[in-house]
Amino acid sequence: MIVAGFGFRSAATLASLEDAFAQASVGRDVTVVSSLADKAETDIFQTFARRYSLEAVSVSEASSAQQDTITQSAFSQQARRTGSVAEATALAAAGPNARLLGPRAISEDGMATCAIAEGGQT
Q1: What CATH superfamily classification does 2-118 receive?
Q2: Of 44, 40, 42, which is closest to residue 3 (Cα–Cα)?
């Protein structure tokens, strides 16, 4: 399973998510998108998932906080207890032994981040 995890600000647009996704997912066959529970339920995230026919998964803040991320953003750490929401939610949704396929990508407008994780073998 290939998961695209997202972190995004409340002012992010559909174009913000699409830009971050396009950068992060090059050459990847993504089947699931994920974000923190409060973000995964937003209209913009659900619209994005429907537009690309991807399963949308909600990740708890506690689960994301347990993930080791490549990126270590002080802002993200303070606000969400993880170095990168995108990286952490991708890893959490991809399951045990998942691995990041690279650091998060940031949308041109700086409103959204996306990271790709591959599910591990259990």
Answers
A1: CobE/GbiG C-terminal domain (3.30.420.180)
A2: 40
